[in-house]
Write a structure and sequence with these properties.
Strand order of the largest sheet: 1-2
CATH class of one domain: Mainly Alpha
Number of strands: 2
CATH topology of one domain: Leucine-rich Repeat Variant
Strand content: under 5%
Shape: elongated
Length: 401
Amino acid sequence: MKLVRMRAIAAIVLLAGLGLGCSKGSSGPDPAGSAAPTEAKPSAKGIEAAGNDAAVVELAKKALGCKWGSYGFDSMCPEMKTLIESELIRDGKADATFVSFLEDPNEQVRWLGGRALSQRGRTFRNDKALAERIVVVAEGETSKTVAQELGGVVGGIKHADTGLGDRIKTMAKGHAVQQMRTSLLARMLFSNGETLYEFVKDIATNDKDAVVRKAAMSAFWTGTPPSRAADSCKMWLGFVDDAADDVSGEAAYLCAFYPQGGGCKTEWDPLLDKIEKRAKDGTIKSTQMASALFYLHRQAGASDAQKKRALAVARAILENRANSGMARGRALELLAEKDPDGKKLLQSMQEEPDVFVKRRAKDLADKAANKPADDKAKATEAEKAKAPEAEKAKASGTKKP
């Protein structure tokens, strides 16, 4: 019995020496030939993501060396132009790569992705998988610079094809970054048509942010379906009475300048009434209010009476010093160009106490004084250009067969 116990103890010692009885928590050495476990690295994202178009990435990395400012990279930088104009990215060929850029932690890379998709993207608009990745990034974007570009990309997504309409509308109504909302609203109506007409109109009417309201109202310039043109004209006329100067001025400009279907003809006379009242009250602060008169006067469908009245209202803006100097200067431009007494006005306004109006009057007077000389110089150059052809024709005319 004693011998059996001794043999059992010896066997246990032997097994322990061979390591066969070690637990998983043993600190002993690994068996010979075994590999130590390696920690899995997360997949690269953004510009370094697997699957990106290598040639496009190469162009993008060169563009990242361009001058960066509050509005993004300098669009005139040669490397930026090379990227945006490359055949590699036209017609949505590189959309998947640029969507990956949007997921990069570097805001400059994200901006680059947004700019490329905005200007050259196509596939992402209807591709649910790509569009959803864009929306996810946009929902969490905090950079104002990136949001300005990315909002337009989100606005280009087709709601019916991707099923992302509700999430995109939520961003349009309440994204934390104003630039995301304004650039999104500027494009979403045009991309999705009449289905969003009332949605965008509601934001234009009721949002608390005047900048957002202006963006929503302006979206109807390109986003109005042909069947709703009369509705948009009526809406713009109503906004001319808005308490926010930027909104009222933009509304007047849109109502006067809208070209589709011959323009907002029904609204032109009441528009002149509204601008005239504000001019006499001295409440015109936006240059766009004066620009409205400029473009109404140029409308092919405007009557002689309406054009004459536009000049009279412009004079009312100019003569009331309670109106802003910039708006008065814009009105002066119209009068200098179209009013029979324009030259006299330019002379008298050079004694104006408002610095802006005074400087604008002088600039316009100088331009008018130099115009005959400029016209003569252009005519001389034109004659010189014609001379060789005239001599050639004359010479050929003297030849006989």
